[in-house]
Design brief:
3 domains, 35% helix, Rossmann fold, five-stranded mixed beta barrel, single chain, OB fold (Dihydrolipoamide Acetyltransferase, E2P), binds iron/sulfur cluster
Length: 449
């Protein structure tokens, strides 16, 4: 039961969808504890920074935010008001006690595996004024104990099914900040899915740092894979769409590929990071797959689901990357054809093996390579969207747009669509005839419910 609202919190989320999901769960448990959200940080009794460690200097940016928040805490103190400052997420996990040492105004440091303890730890800070650092990895406890009922803020809801990663790509902090792979049992995921659908979700995005490494306990007690999990979720009434992210090529098994051809609710979209078109670079990144294997997966998934739209991640200028190897990435992109993609210049993340490699690529070279790659990817995205011109596509509307009467939704291929409607169509799937196609979005006219 929700307690009467007496205190307010301000929560800022950085980074990936996993952090967005974790912030939603923290919000739910704070609401149950009688907190209400405020958009004004100066009004907040509790300030939470849910941090991301993926970018270089991420921790430094957190410390500079914390300096400003400390000033606000001091000002509130002069007015006789207490403020609790909490740092959560991957910077919390990576830096631990260093955070309270460098910024003593911080009361709580909580790693991603301990969010279920948030209300208890806030109460302890209030009672004892001690500074608490909680960055253990207690396994599956977190999900079991974050038992507040799920709220839905969009018809497309995140559902974490897996956390952590055992792959240890040499550029990535995730195995250090999120720990080893852990999969939630099917029964618990089904329960959460039913709650989300009852609360208005029409689409579930299954989340995991390595989501297709999912190996949770099924109803019979034996372990099941992601394909089986998707089939079970597809049986739930009211669930129109299923997506999953982020996948690793190594874990793209035959059953999951087959599911793309068999499960109508599984949307024809796959985000499958490759990072580079050079086998030597992939080995240096410890990606555990080669370009030929990636192309083979793409061929097989296109056989199972010919209209699948593909997305990927690319790192440009990894240490030692030659001009020819950068060219190999362009060739791979040209050969595969992507509907969208994310591409970045390599930047060293502290604590990762690649950060101490010599032979760093000069920044201007990285910039030039990135520009060429992005130009090709943007052309492919524009061309992919233009193929929808004149077609009528099913769009699940997720929110209101900026213009009067405008709504924004997604096609099965994850394209963003703007359309105007008379009534409120958020949460409804409507046929939209596409009249305009831009690189990043479509516009259209509603044709049918
Ligand atoms: S598979 Fe993904 S999460 Fe795991 S180490 Fe590699 S990049 Fe990081």
């Amino acid at each position: 039961m929700q307690r009467p609202s007496t205190k307010s919190y301000f929560l800022k989320t950085f980074g990936c969808q996993m952090n967005v999901y974790d912030s939603e769960r923290m919000t739910e448990s704070l609401t149950r504890d009688g907190y209400s959200e405020t958009a004004e940080i100066a009004d907040a009794d509790l300030v939470i920074l849910n941090t991301c460690h993926i970018r270089e200097k991420a921790a430094e940016k957190v410390y500079s935010d914390l300096g400003r928040i400390r000033d606000m805490k001091d000002a509130r103190k002069r007015d006789g008001k207490d403020t609790v400052i909490a740092v959560t997420g991957c910077v919390a996990q990576a830096e631990g006690r260093e955070i309270t040492t460098r910024q003593p105004a911080v009361d709580l440091v909580i790693g991603p595996q301990s969010y279920h303890r948030l209300p208890e730890l806030i109460a302890r800070v209030g009672n004892t004024r001690e500074r608490i650092v909680e960055t253990e990895f207690p396994g599956d406890e977190k999900f079991d104990r974050m038992s507040a009922p799920r709220r839905v803020v969009s018809p497309s809801a995140f559902l974490t099914v897996q956390e952590g990663c055992d792959k240890f790509c040499t550029f990535c902090v995730v195995p250090y900040t999120r720990g080893a792979e852990f999969s939630r049992p099917l029964a618990k995921i089904e329960n959460e899915a039913r709650e989300l659908i009852a609360a208005g979700a029409r689409e579930l995005v299954l989340l995991g740092q390595n989501v297709n490494a999912y190996h949770g306990e099924g109803h019979s007690g034996r372990s099941i894979g992601l394909a089986e999990l998707i089939r079970r979720l597809a049986d739930i009434d009211g669930l129109e769409r299923i997506r999953y992210t982020t996948s690793h090529p190594r874990d793209m098994d035959d059953d999951l590929i087959a599911a793309h051809g068999e499960v109508p609710q599984l949307m024809p979209f796959l985000h499958l990071p490759i990072q580079s078109g050079s086998d030597r670079m992939l080995a240096a990144m410890n990606r555990k797959h080669k370009t030929g294997e990636y192309i083979d997966i793409i061929d097989r998934i296109r056989s199972a689901r010919p209209d699948i739209a593909l997305s990927s991640d690319f790192i440009v200028g990894f240490p030692g990357e030659t001009a020819d190897e950068a060219e190999d990435t362009l060739k791979l992109v040209a050969a595969v054809g992507f509907a969208q993609a994310y591409s970045f210049k390599y930047s060293p993340r502290p604590g990762t093996p690649a950060s101490s490699l010599g032979d760093q690529v000069p920044d201007e070279v990285k910039s030039e390579r990135l520009q060429r790659l992005q130009a090709l990817l943007e052309d492919q995205q524009t061309e992919f969207n233009q193929r929808s011109l004149g077609a009528t596509v099913p769009v699940l509307f997720e929110r209101k747009g900026r213009q009067p009467g405008e709504f924004v939704g997604r096609t099965p291929h994850l394209q963003l669509v703007h359309a105007v409607a008379d009534g409120d169509i958020v949460g409804r799937t409507m046929g939209v005839t596409v009249t305009e196609a831009r690189r990043a979005s479509l516009s259209g006219v509603i044709a049918s419910a």
